[in-house]
Amino acid sequence: MSTAPAPYPIGTPGTPWGEAERAEWLSRQTRHRSYESEVLSVIERLGTRFDVEEYGHLNYGHETYPLMAIRSRDWRDNLPVVLITGGVHGYETSGVHGALQFVDQHAGDYAGRVNLLVAPCVSPWAYERIHRWNAHAVDPNRSFRDDSQAEESAALMRLVAPIRDRALLHLDLHETTDTDESEFRPALAARDGKPFEPGGIPDGFYLVDDSNNPQPEFQQAVIKAVEPITHIAPADDKGEIFGSPVVARGVIEYPIEQLGLCASVTNAPYRTTTEVYPDSPRATPEQCNAAQAAAVCAAIDYALAHR
């Protein structure tokens, strides 16, 4: 016989959080890793080959985080623009390090062919705490709106504004983890005063297309490139992944602008959100990073061939 999940340890079931609950949640967050040593140091080294800029900074208490972007050094206005984002959810590690690996190992292959703009760690406070939300218990990846309540999201939107209508491609690099089910979805339900409904975690890599502008051939080109590196998530017994119908192998669709997702920050004809599964016994951190980098390469190759 199944048992109901235990109530989330913060708040009263059925009642949305107020300031006291958010403060209690914040007091429980612990710094586990260093944005400076693991991310900024890599960006600094890449600065010998690429242009690096600070596009904003976060102030959370006594902590300040510079928000950094990497650009092609040979930027030319007549070239198509490719936007790569990672770490919108700070706990999704391969989104950050896969973006950096792409720049280090593959970006040079596209010199003179595209203008690259890469924001590898959109949410550094959450990166250090291995969390989904920012310090205000706000999800940056539901906050890409003109009235954004997340400075991480607002800063990226300001960075991207000049190329919003010029971008050919945007890849937003994410992970789906076991902690989505054990921590982050229960926390979301508690924060919003809603019941938590347990679900399943898809075992493998998948993509999220834009339901208002689907590009099925583009999505499958990315799936094909990633499959030799890590396995593709199958549909569940309802033909779904995370409650959304699987429209093609390894692909679901969301209304990205309606949901305020990062993939909506440009009007690029080619947009996708990658979802790597790092908790599989069949996947190593190295494979997860390589899968993200391969997805970027395949996406750029397809977009250039079909523009």
Automatic annotation (TrEMBL):
InterPro entries, alphabetized: AstE_AspA_cat, Peptidase_M14
Domain of life, per lineage: Bacteria
Pfam families found in the cross-reference section: AstE_AspA_cat (PF24827)
Keywords from the named record: Hydrolase, Metal-binding, Zinc
Names of the cofactor(s): Zn(2+)
Family designation: Belongs to the peptidase M14 family.
Identification of the protein by name: M14 family metallocarboxypeptidase
The species this protein was found in: Marinobacter salinisoli
Native organism taxonomy: Bacteria, Pseudomonadati, Pseudomonadota, Gammaproteobacteria, Pseudomonadales
